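User: Fold this, then the next.

Assistant: Folding the first:
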Amino acid sequence: MTSLPRQLSVLRNATLSDGSIVDVELSGDIVGEVRPATGRPVMEGQLDLEGFVLLTAPAEPHAHLDKALSWDLINPPAGDLGRAIESWRAYSSVMTVESIADRAREQALAMLRNGTTAIRCHVDMLVGAEPLRGVEALVQVRAELADLMDIELVALAGPDATDDTVEAALDLGVDLVGGAPHLAPSPGHDLRRLLAIAERRGVGVDLHTDEGLGGTPTIVELARIVRDWTVPVSAGHCVRLGTLEPDELAEVIVEILASDIGVISLPITNLYLQGWDHPVSTPRGITALRSLIDAGVRVGAGADNVRDPFNPVGRSDALETASLLVTAAHLSLDEAYDAVSTGSRSVMSLPFAGVEVGARAELLAVRGSSLSEVIGAASADRFVIHAGRLVSQSRVTHDIAAPRLIDTLALELSPTSN
Protein backbone atom coordinates (compact mmCIF):
# COMPACT_ATOMS: atom_id res chain seq x y z
CA MET A 1 0.00 0.00 0.00
CA THR A 2 1.36 3.42 -0.89
CA SER A 3 2.17 5.95 1.83
CA LEU A 4 1.73 8.85 -0.59
CA PRO A 5 1.00 11.71 -0.51
CA ARG A 6 3.15 12.82 2.43
CA GLN A 7 4.10 16.27 3.61
CA LEU A 8 7.76 17.21 3.30
CA SER A 9 9.71 19.65 5.47
CA VAL A 10 13.20 19.61 3.89
CA LEU A 11 14.72 18.47 0.62
CA ARG A 12 18.38 17.65 1.17
CA ASN A 13 21.39 17.49 -1.16
CA ALA A 14 19.50 18.56 -4.29
CA THR A 15 21.45 19.63 -7.37
CA LEU A 16 20.10 22.74 -9.09
CA SER A 17 20.36 23.42 -12.81
CA ASP A 18 23.32 25.75 -12.16
CA GLY A 19 25.22 22.89 -10.50
CA SER A 20 24.92 24.09 -6.91
CA ILE A 21 23.92 21.59 -4.23
CA VAL A 22 21.37 22.84 -1.74
CA ASP A 23 18.96 22.01 1.02
CA VAL A 24 15.44 23.34 0.48
CA GLU A 25 13.17 24.02 3.43
CA LEU A 26 9.44 23.85 2.79
CA SER A 27 6.77 25.66 4.76
CA GLY A 28 3.58 23.90 3.76
CA ASP A 29 3.13 24.53 0.05
CA ILE A 30 5.73 27.34 -0.05
CA VAL A 31 9.52 27.24 -0.36
CA GLY A 32 10.76 28.78 2.89
CA GLU A 33 14.53 28.68 2.51
CA VAL A 34 17.20 27.59 0.04
CA ARG A 35 20.72 27.17 1.46
CA PRO A 36 23.94 25.32 0.66
CA ALA A 37 23.68 21.65 1.55
CA THR A 38 24.74 20.97 5.13
CA GLY A 39 25.29 17.22 4.90
CA ARG A 40 23.07 16.63 7.92
CA PRO A 41 21.35 13.25 8.26
CA VAL A 42 17.96 12.92 6.62
CA MET A 43 15.19 12.89 9.22
CA GLU A 44 11.51 11.98 9.19
CA GLY A 45 9.55 14.19 6.77
CA GLN A 46 12.67 14.98 4.77
CA LEU A 47 13.79 13.71 1.37
CA ASP A 48 17.35 12.93 0.28
CA LEU A 49 17.85 14.11 -3.31
CA GLU A 50 21.53 13.27 -3.67
CA GLY A 51 22.12 12.43 -7.34
CA PHE A 52 18.95 14.23 -8.46
CA VAL A 53 18.43 17.55 -10.25
CA LEU A 54 15.65 19.61 -8.64
CA LEU A 55 13.50 21.69 -10.99
CA THR A 56 10.24 23.58 -11.16
CA ALA A 57 7.56 20.98 -11.86
CA PRO A 58 6.26 21.01 -15.43
CA ALA A 59 2.79 22.36 -16.21
CA GLU A 60 0.90 21.14 -19.28
CA PRO A 61 -0.81 24.19 -20.83
CA HIS A 62 -2.72 22.36 -23.56
CA ALA A 63 -3.94 18.79 -23.14
CA HIS A 64 -6.85 16.77 -24.50
CA LEU A 65 -7.46 14.22 -21.76
CA ASP A 66 -10.83 13.33 -23.26
CA LYS A 67 -9.10 12.18 -26.47
CA ALA A 68 -6.00 10.62 -24.92
CA LEU A 69 -5.13 6.93 -25.39
CA SER A 70 -7.79 6.38 -28.06
CA TRP A 71 -5.51 5.61 -31.03
CA ASP A 72 -5.74 1.84 -30.63
CA LEU A 73 -9.49 2.02 -30.05
CA ILE A 74 -10.11 4.07 -33.19
CA ASN A 75 -7.31 2.76 -35.43
CA PRO A 76 -7.49 5.96 -37.49
CA PRO A 77 -5.65 6.62 -40.74
CA ALA A 78 -2.35 8.45 -40.38
CA GLY A 79 -2.64 11.95 -41.74
CA ASP A 80 -3.19 15.63 -41.30
CA LEU A 81 -5.52 17.65 -39.10
CA GLY A 82 -8.57 17.12 -41.32
CA ARG A 83 -8.31 13.32 -41.22
CA ALA A 84 -7.75 13.37 -37.48
CA ILE A 85 -10.86 15.47 -36.90
CA GLU A 86 -12.97 13.20 -39.12
CA SER A 87 -11.92 10.00 -37.36
CA TRP A 88 -12.36 11.52 -33.91
CA ARG A 89 -15.84 12.83 -34.64
CA ALA A 90 -16.89 9.45 -35.99
CA TYR A 91 -15.74 7.68 -32.85
CA SER A 92 -16.99 10.22 -30.34
CA SER A 93 -20.62 9.20 -30.84
CA VAL A 94 -20.04 5.86 -29.03
CA MET A 95 -18.17 7.26 -26.03
CA THR A 96 -19.70 7.27 -22.56
CA VAL A 97 -18.95 9.48 -19.59
CA GLU A 98 -17.33 6.48 -17.91
CA SER A 99 -15.08 5.54 -20.83
CA ILE A 100 -13.91 9.14 -21.25
CA ALA A 101 -13.21 9.44 -17.53
CA ASP A 102 -11.23 6.19 -17.47
CA ARG A 103 -8.88 7.29 -20.26
CA ALA A 104 -8.59 10.84 -18.91
CA ARG A 105 -7.72 9.62 -15.43
CA GLU A 106 -5.12 7.19 -16.75
CA GLN A 107 -3.52 9.89 -18.86
CA ALA A 108 -3.49 12.50 -16.09
CA LEU A 109 -1.82 10.07 -13.68
CA ALA A 110 0.78 9.14 -16.29
CA MET A 111 1.63 12.83 -16.62
CA LEU A 112 1.77 13.22 -12.84
CA ARG A 113 4.12 10.25 -12.56
CA ASN A 114 6.49 12.02 -14.95
CA GLY A 115 6.36 15.29 -13.04
CA THR A 116 3.48 17.40 -14.35
CA THR A 117 1.51 18.85 -11.44
CA ALA A 118 -0.83 21.18 -13.37
CA ILE A 119 -2.83 20.50 -16.54
CA ARG A 120 -5.04 22.70 -18.68
CA CYS A 121 -7.38 20.37 -20.56
CA HIS A 122 -9.49 21.30 -23.59
CA VAL A 123 -12.73 19.31 -23.59
CA ASP A 124 -14.76 18.78 -26.77
CA MET A 125 -18.37 19.83 -27.02
CA LEU A 126 -19.33 16.52 -28.63
CA VAL A 127 -21.56 16.21 -31.66
CA GLY A 128 -24.98 14.59 -31.44
CA ALA A 129 -26.92 13.84 -28.29
CA GLU A 130 -25.41 14.61 -24.89
CA PRO A 131 -22.69 17.00 -26.08
CA LEU A 132 -21.46 17.50 -22.50
CA ARG A 133 -20.36 13.90 -21.86
CA GLY A 134 -16.73 14.91 -22.02
CA VAL A 135 -17.25 17.85 -19.68
CA GLU A 136 -19.05 15.66 -17.15
CA ALA A 137 -16.21 13.13 -17.29
CA LEU A 138 -13.46 15.71 -16.83
CA VAL A 139 -15.23 17.52 -13.99
CA GLN A 140 -15.39 14.14 -12.25
CA VAL A 141 -11.70 13.38 -12.87
CA ARG A 142 -10.67 16.85 -11.73
CA ALA A 143 -12.46 16.28 -8.42
CA GLU A 144 -10.88 12.84 -7.99
CA LEU A 145 -7.36 14.17 -8.51
CA ALA A 146 -7.74 17.49 -6.70
CA ASP A 147 -5.34 16.48 -3.90
CA LEU A 148 -2.66 15.39 -6.39
CA MET A 149 -2.60 18.02 -9.13
CA ASP A 150 -4.27 21.16 -10.46
CA ILE A 151 -6.55 20.75 -13.50
CA GLU A 152 -8.11 23.60 -15.48
CA LEU A 153 -10.84 22.90 -18.03
CA VAL A 154 -11.49 24.68 -21.32
CA ALA A 155 -14.72 24.31 -23.32
CA LEU A 156 -13.47 23.40 -26.80
CA ALA A 157 -16.38 24.66 -28.89
CA GLY A 158 -16.36 23.95 -32.59
CA PRO A 159 -18.45 26.11 -34.94
CA ASP A 160 -21.35 23.66 -34.60
CA ALA A 161 -21.42 23.94 -30.80
CA THR A 162 -24.23 26.26 -29.77
CA ASP A 163 -23.81 29.16 -27.40
CA ASP A 164 -26.18 27.39 -24.99
CA THR A 165 -23.91 24.32 -24.96
CA VAL A 166 -20.86 26.42 -24.12
CA GLU A 167 -22.79 28.23 -21.39
CA ALA A 168 -23.92 24.88 -19.97
CA ALA A 169 -20.31 23.68 -19.88
CA LEU A 170 -19.35 26.77 -17.90
CA ASP A 171 -22.26 26.11 -15.55
CA LEU A 172 -20.86 22.60 -14.91
CA GLY A 173 -17.54 24.05 -13.78
CA VAL A 174 -15.44 24.59 -16.91
CA ASP A 175 -13.00 27.43 -16.34
CA LEU A 176 -12.31 28.96 -19.78
CA VAL A 177 -13.85 29.37 -23.21
CA GLY A 178 -12.01 27.73 -26.10
CA GLY A 179 -12.50 26.85 -29.71
CA ALA A 180 -10.76 26.81 -33.09
CA PRO A 181 -12.12 29.78 -35.07
CA HIS A 182 -9.60 29.35 -37.88
CA LEU A 183 -11.37 26.08 -38.79
CA ALA A 184 -14.84 27.65 -38.97
CA PRO A 185 -16.49 28.58 -42.30
CA SER A 186 -16.35 32.19 -41.11
CA PRO A 187 -13.33 32.47 -38.77
CA GLY A 188 -13.97 36.08 -37.78
CA HIS A 189 -17.60 35.43 -36.89
CA ASP A 190 -16.78 32.36 -34.79
CA LEU A 191 -13.96 34.20 -33.02
CA ARG A 192 -16.22 37.07 -32.06
CA ARG A 193 -18.98 34.68 -30.97
CA LEU A 194 -16.69 32.81 -28.58
CA LEU A 195 -15.17 35.99 -27.18
CA ALA A 196 -18.65 37.39 -26.60
CA ILE A 197 -19.55 34.35 -24.49
CA ALA A 198 -16.37 34.71 -22.44
CA GLU A 199 -16.93 38.42 -21.92
CA ARG A 200 -20.54 37.85 -20.92
CA ARG A 201 -19.47 35.26 -18.35
CA GLY A 202 -16.35 37.08 -17.16
CA VAL A 203 -14.00 34.15 -17.84
CA GLY A 204 -10.71 33.78 -19.66
CA VAL A 205 -10.07 32.41 -23.14
CA ASP A 206 -7.66 29.85 -24.56
CA LEU A 207 -8.19 29.37 -28.30
CA HIS A 208 -6.71 26.99 -30.84
CA THR A 209 -5.25 29.59 -33.17
CA ASP A 210 -3.88 29.49 -36.74
CA GLU A 211 -3.15 25.77 -36.66
CA GLY A 212 -1.87 25.58 -40.22
CA LEU A 213 1.02 26.60 -42.42
CA GLY A 214 -0.99 29.07 -44.53
CA GLY A 215 -3.89 31.48 -44.41
CA THR A 216 -4.51 34.83 -42.77
CA PRO A 217 -3.60 34.82 -39.06
CA THR A 218 -6.63 35.20 -36.80
CA ILE A 219 -4.50 36.06 -33.78
CA VAL A 220 -4.35 39.72 -34.83
CA GLU A 221 -8.13 40.14 -34.56
CA LEU A 222 -8.08 38.19 -31.29
CA ALA A 223 -5.45 40.56 -29.89
CA ARG A 224 -7.33 43.67 -30.90
CA ILE A 225 -10.64 42.52 -29.41
CA VAL A 226 -9.16 41.55 -26.02
CA ARG A 227 -6.84 44.57 -25.76
CA ASP A 228 -8.31 45.86 -22.51
CA TRP A 229 -9.41 42.56 -20.98
CA THR A 230 -8.27 41.75 -17.45
CA VAL A 231 -8.92 37.98 -17.64
CA PRO A 232 -6.30 35.54 -19.01
CA VAL A 233 -6.08 35.14 -22.78
CA SER A 234 -3.89 32.61 -24.55
CA ALA A 235 -3.50 31.13 -28.01
CA GLY A 236 -2.38 27.59 -28.72
CA HIS A 237 -0.54 26.20 -31.78
CA CYS A 238 0.00 29.46 -33.73
CA VAL A 239 1.82 27.41 -36.37
CA ARG A 240 1.14 30.02 -39.03
CA LEU A 241 3.45 32.48 -37.26
CA GLY A 242 6.35 30.19 -38.02
CA THR A 243 5.84 30.66 -41.78
CA LEU A 244 5.33 34.44 -41.86
CA GLU A 245 7.90 36.72 -43.41
CA PRO A 246 9.93 38.71 -40.81
CA ASP A 247 8.21 42.05 -41.39
CA GLU A 248 4.71 40.58 -41.14
CA LEU A 249 5.67 38.50 -38.09
CA ALA A 250 7.01 41.61 -36.36
CA GLU A 251 3.67 43.36 -36.85
CA VAL A 252 1.79 40.38 -35.39
CA ILE A 253 4.10 40.24 -32.37
CA VAL A 254 3.41 43.90 -31.66
CA GLU A 255 -0.31 43.06 -31.43
CA ILE A 256 0.34 40.03 -29.20
CA LEU A 257 2.48 42.06 -26.80
CA ALA A 258 -0.04 44.90 -26.66
CA SER A 259 -2.69 42.47 -25.37
CA ASP A 260 -0.30 40.28 -23.31
CA ILE A 261 -1.53 37.10 -24.99
CA GLY A 262 0.26 33.97 -23.89
CA VAL A 263 1.37 31.76 -26.80
CA ILE A 264 1.46 27.97 -26.41
CA SER A 265 3.66 25.85 -28.65
CA LEU A 266 2.80 22.18 -29.14
CA PRO A 267 5.71 20.62 -31.02
CA ILE A 268 4.91 16.92 -30.78
CA THR A 269 1.42 17.11 -32.24
CA ASN A 270 2.12 19.88 -34.74
CA LEU A 271 5.23 18.18 -36.09
CA TYR A 272 3.00 15.18 -36.75
CA LEU A 273 -0.04 16.98 -38.19
CA GLN A 274 1.59 19.65 -40.32
CA GLY A 275 3.42 19.31 -43.62
CA TRP A 276 1.85 16.16 -45.05
CA ASP A 277 1.42 17.95 -48.39
CA HIS A 278 5.07 19.08 -48.41
CA PRO A 279 7.07 15.89 -49.10
CA VAL A 280 10.17 17.95 -49.93
CA SER A 281 11.65 20.45 -47.44
CA THR A 282 8.80 19.64 -45.06
CA PRO A 283 8.03 22.61 -42.75
CA ARG A 284 8.60 22.05 -39.05
CA GLY A 285 5.08 22.95 -37.96
CA ILE A 286 6.20 24.99 -34.93
CA THR A 287 5.36 28.59 -34.11
CA ALA A 288 7.99 31.35 -34.32
CA LEU A 289 9.41 30.62 -30.88
CA ARG A 290 12.74 32.36 -31.30
CA SER A 291 11.14 35.65 -32.35
CA LEU A 292 8.38 35.42 -29.72
CA ILE A 293 10.79 34.73 -26.86
CA ASP A 294 13.25 37.41 -27.95
CA ALA A 295 10.40 39.94 -28.10
CA GLY A 296 9.29 39.12 -24.54
CA VAL A 297 6.04 37.29 -25.33
CA ARG A 298 4.94 34.92 -22.57
CA VAL A 299 5.51 31.46 -24.07
CA GLY A 300 4.57 28.01 -22.80
CA ALA A 301 4.86 24.60 -24.41
CA GLY A 302 3.04 21.31 -24.07
CA ALA A 303 2.38 17.98 -25.71
CA ASP A 304 -1.23 18.54 -26.79
CA ASN A 305 -2.45 15.10 -27.87
CA VAL A 306 -1.12 11.75 -26.67
CA ARG A 307 -1.81 8.53 -28.60
CA ASP A 308 -5.02 9.60 -30.27
CA PRO A 309 -5.98 10.41 -33.89
CA PHE A 310 -4.12 13.73 -33.68
CA ASN A 311 -0.84 12.16 -32.53
CA PRO A 312 -0.20 8.39 -32.38
CA VAL A 313 2.79 8.69 -30.05
CA GLY A 314 3.82 10.59 -26.92
CA ARG A 315 5.28 9.59 -23.55
CA SER A 316 3.21 11.83 -21.26
CA ASP A 317 6.49 13.46 -20.29
CA ALA A 318 7.28 17.18 -20.42
CA LEU A 319 10.96 16.28 -20.92
CA GLU A 320 9.99 14.88 -24.33
CA THR A 321 8.49 18.26 -25.21
CA ALA A 322 11.58 20.07 -23.93
CA SER A 323 13.85 17.81 -25.98
CA LEU A 324 11.87 18.55 -29.14
CA LEU A 325 12.05 22.29 -28.46
CA VAL A 326 15.83 22.00 -28.42
CA THR A 327 15.97 19.87 -31.55
CA ALA A 328 13.22 21.29 -33.73
CA ALA A 329 12.90 24.86 -32.44
CA HIS A 330 16.58 25.50 -31.67
CA LEU A 331 15.93 26.67 -28.11
CA SER A 332 18.62 26.41 -25.47
CA LEU A 333 18.25 23.78 -22.75
CA ASP A 334 17.25 26.45 -20.22
CA GLU A 335 14.74 28.04 -22.60
CA ALA A 336 13.22 24.68 -23.45
CA TYR A 337 12.73 23.64 -19.84
CA ASP A 338 11.44 27.09 -18.90
CA ALA A 339 8.80 26.78 -21.64
CA VAL A 340 7.38 23.56 -20.15
CA SER A 341 7.52 24.79 -16.55
CA THR A 342 7.69 28.46 -15.55
CA GLY A 343 6.52 29.68 -18.97
CA SER A 344 3.56 27.34 -19.00
CA ARG A 345 2.59 28.34 -15.47
CA SER A 346 2.65 31.99 -16.55
CA VAL A 347 0.44 31.31 -19.58
CA MET A 348 -1.94 29.37 -17.33
CA SER A 349 -2.00 32.24 -14.78
CA LEU A 350 -0.77 29.93 -12.02
CA PRO A 351 1.26 31.20 -9.05
CA PHE A 352 5.03 31.34 -9.50
CA ALA A 353 6.69 28.07 -8.49
CA GLY A 354 10.20 26.68 -8.22
CA VAL A 355 13.27 26.53 -6.02
CA GLU A 356 13.04 30.11 -4.80
CA VAL A 357 12.05 31.53 -1.44
CA GLY A 358 8.36 32.38 -1.46
CA ALA A 359 7.60 30.28 -4.55
CA ARG A 360 5.05 27.51 -4.61
CA ALA A 361 6.54 24.09 -3.87
CA GLU A 362 5.67 22.53 -7.23
CA LEU A 363 8.86 20.58 -7.86
CA LEU A 364 10.33 17.72 -9.85
CA ALA A 365 13.52 15.85 -9.01
CA VAL A 366 15.04 13.71 -11.78
CA ARG A 367 18.07 11.48 -11.40
CA GLY A 368 21.00 13.14 -13.13
CA SER A 369 23.82 15.61 -12.64
CA SER A 370 22.82 18.43 -15.01
CA LEU A 371 19.94 19.87 -17.00
CA SER A 372 21.40 18.47 -20.22
CA GLU A 373 21.41 14.96 -18.74
CA VAL A 374 17.89 15.38 -17.39
CA ILE A 375 16.46 16.51 -20.74
CA GLY A 376 18.64 14.21 -22.82
CA ALA A 377 18.41 10.97 -20.83
CA ALA A 378 15.07 11.68 -19.12
CA SER A 379 15.53 9.10 -16.40
CA ALA A 380 12.25 7.72 -15.11
CA ASP A 381 13.77 7.79 -11.61
CA ARG A 382 11.85 10.78 -10.21
CA PHE A 383 10.23 12.43 -7.23
CA VAL A 384 7.18 14.65 -7.83
CA ILE A 385 6.15 17.28 -5.28
CA HIS A 386 2.79 19.07 -5.41
CA ALA A 387 1.88 21.73 -2.82
CA GLY A 388 4.85 20.66 -0.70
CA ARG A 389 3.79 17.02 -0.61
CA LEU A 390 5.41 14.01 -2.26
CA VAL A 391 2.69 12.74 -4.61
CA SER A 392 4.69 10.38 -6.82
CA GLN A 393 7.95 8.46 -6.70
CA SER A 394 9.32 6.25 -9.46
CA ARG A 395 12.28 3.93 -8.90
CA VAL A 396 14.30 2.47 -11.75
CA THR A 397 16.45 -0.66 -11.61
CA HIS A 398 18.74 -1.99 -14.32
CA ASP A 399 19.99 -5.54 -14.83
CA ILE A 400 22.57 -5.63 -17.63
CA ALA A 401 24.74 -8.58 -18.66
CA ALA A 402 28.39 -8.15 -17.64
CA PRO A 403 30.78 -7.19 -20.45
CA ARG A 404 33.57 -9.54 -21.50
CA LEU A 405 36.75 -9.18 -19.43
CA ILE A 406 39.77 -8.33 -21.57
CA ASP A 407 43.44 -8.44 -20.59
CA THR A 408 44.38 -4.98 -21.88
CA LEU A 409 48.14 -5.58 -21.43
CA ALA A 410 48.00 -8.72 -23.53
CA LEU A 411 45.93 -6.85 -26.10
CA GLU A 412 48.56 -4.10 -26.32
CA LEU A 413 51.37 -6.68 -26.82
CA SER A 414 49.46 -8.63 -29.43
CA PRO A 415 51.18 -8.45 -32.85
CA THR A 416 47.82 -7.82 -34.50
CA SER A 417 47.13 -4.71 -32.40
CA ASN A 418 47.62 -1.27 -33.95
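Now the next one, as you asked:
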Amino acid sequence: MRIQSSALVHLGFGKYVRSDQVTAVIPIEEERGPGRRTFIHLQGHTDPIVASRAEDSIVRDLVQEPREVTQSRQQQEILHDLLMDLSNVNPTVRRIVRDEGGLDLERLEQRIREVVEE
Protein backbone atom coordinates (compact mmCIF):
# COMPACT_ATOMS: atom_id res chain seq x y z
CA MET A 1 0.00 0.00 0.00
CA ARG A 2 1.47 3.33 -1.07
CA ILE A 3 0.19 6.80 -0.21
CA GLN A 4 -0.16 9.07 -3.22
CA SER A 5 2.13 12.04 -2.72
CA SER A 6 0.54 15.49 -2.52
CA ALA A 7 -2.91 14.36 -3.69
CA LEU A 8 -5.90 15.99 -2.04
CA VAL A 9 -8.26 13.61 -0.25
CA HIS A 10 -11.86 14.58 0.34
CA LEU A 11 -13.01 14.18 3.95
CA GLY A 12 -16.56 15.37 3.34
CA PHE A 13 -18.39 18.67 3.84
CA GLY A 14 -15.76 20.61 1.87
CA LYS A 15 -12.78 19.38 3.89
CA TYR A 16 -9.65 18.22 2.05
CA VAL A 17 -6.20 17.20 3.27
CA ARG A 18 -2.96 16.35 1.50
CA SER A 19 -2.60 12.59 1.40
CA ASP A 20 1.05 12.60 2.40
CA GLN A 21 0.27 14.49 5.63
CA VAL A 22 -2.17 11.90 6.97
CA THR A 23 -0.63 9.88 9.79
CA ALA A 24 -3.68 7.96 11.04
CA VAL A 25 -7.26 7.19 10.03
CA ILE A 26 -9.35 6.06 13.00
CA PRO A 27 -13.07 5.24 12.92
CA ILE A 28 -15.16 7.11 15.46
CA GLU A 29 -16.84 4.61 17.74
CA GLU A 30 -18.51 6.83 20.34
CA GLU A 31 -20.92 9.56 19.23
CA ARG A 32 -20.55 8.43 15.61
CA GLY A 33 -23.18 9.76 13.27
CA PRO A 34 -23.86 12.02 10.30
CA GLY A 35 -20.86 14.31 9.90
CA ARG A 36 -18.84 12.28 12.45
CA ARG A 37 -17.43 9.10 10.95
CA THR A 38 -13.63 9.20 11.16
CA PHE A 39 -10.76 10.92 12.98
CA ILE A 40 -7.97 12.01 10.65
CA HIS A 41 -4.61 12.69 12.28
CA LEU A 42 -2.22 14.96 10.38
CA GLN A 43 1.50 15.44 10.60
CA GLY A 44 2.34 18.38 12.85
CA HIS A 45 -1.17 18.62 14.39
CA THR A 46 -2.05 17.41 17.85
CA ASP A 47 -5.83 17.30 17.44
CA PRO A 48 -7.48 15.15 14.77
CA ILE A 49 -9.84 16.43 12.10
CA VAL A 50 -13.34 14.97 12.17
CA ALA A 51 -14.31 13.61 8.77
CA SER A 52 -17.84 12.89 7.63
CA ARG A 53 -16.75 10.03 5.36
CA ALA A 54 -16.18 6.45 6.47
CA GLU A 55 -12.60 5.35 7.14
CA ASP A 56 -12.55 2.74 4.35
CA SER A 57 -13.52 5.35 1.75
CA ILE A 58 -10.82 7.72 2.95
CA VAL A 59 -8.15 5.00 3.01
CA ARG A 60 -9.12 3.94 -0.52
CA ASP A 61 -8.68 7.53 -1.70
CA LEU A 62 -5.33 7.77 0.10
CA VAL A 63 -3.79 4.77 -1.62
CA GLN A 64 -5.38 4.73 -5.06
CA GLU A 65 -3.95 6.66 -7.94
CA PRO A 66 -6.30 9.26 -9.36
CA ARG A 67 -8.18 8.01 -12.41
CA GLU A 68 -6.47 10.60 -14.63
CA VAL A 69 -3.02 9.25 -13.69
CA THR A 70 -4.07 5.67 -14.40
CA GLN A 71 -5.60 6.63 -17.74
CA SER A 72 -2.53 8.64 -18.73
CA ARG A 73 -0.25 5.69 -17.97
CA GLN A 74 -2.48 3.36 -19.99
CA GLN A 75 -2.50 5.79 -22.91
CA GLN A 76 1.30 6.03 -22.83
CA GLU A 77 1.55 2.22 -22.89
CA ILE A 78 -0.81 2.03 -25.87
CA LEU A 79 1.24 4.63 -27.73
CA HIS A 80 4.45 2.71 -27.02
CA ASP A 81 2.84 -0.50 -28.33
CA LEU A 82 1.55 1.26 -31.43
CA LEU A 83 4.95 2.81 -32.08
CA MET A 84 6.60 -0.60 -31.82
CA ASP A 85 4.05 -2.13 -34.21
CA LEU A 86 4.43 0.73 -36.69
CA SER A 87 8.19 0.22 -36.79
CA ASN A 88 7.56 -3.31 -38.13
CA VAL A 89 5.48 -2.18 -41.13
CA ASN A 90 7.57 -2.57 -44.28
CA PRO A 91 8.01 0.29 -46.79
CA THR A 92 5.81 -1.30 -49.47
CA VAL A 93 2.86 -1.64 -47.11
CA ARG A 94 3.46 1.93 -45.86
CA ARG A 95 3.34 3.24 -49.45
CA ILE A 96 0.13 1.30 -50.23
CA VAL A 97 -1.55 2.51 -47.02
CA ARG A 98 -0.54 6.11 -47.80
CA ASP A 99 -1.50 6.04 -51.50
CA GLU A 100 -4.66 3.94 -51.28
CA GLY A 101 -5.91 4.72 -47.77
CA GLY A 102 -4.64 8.25 -47.23
CA LEU A 103 -2.91 7.31 -43.97
CA ASP A 104 0.70 8.45 -43.69
CA LEU A 105 2.20 5.96 -41.22
CA GLU A 106 5.54 7.79 -41.13
CA ARG A 107 3.86 11.04 -40.07
CA LEU A 108 1.77 9.15 -37.49
CA GLU A 109 4.88 7.42 -36.17
CA GLN A 110 6.67 10.77 -35.84
CA ARG A 111 3.73 12.36 -33.98
CA ILE A 112 3.59 9.45 -31.54
CA ARG A 113 7.35 9.73 -30.93
CA GLU A 114 6.96 13.44 -30.13
CA VAL A 115 4.19 12.72 -27.60
CA VAL A 116 5.93 9.77 -25.98
CA GLU A 117 9.26 11.57 -25.64
CA GLU A 118 7.79 14.71 -23.98
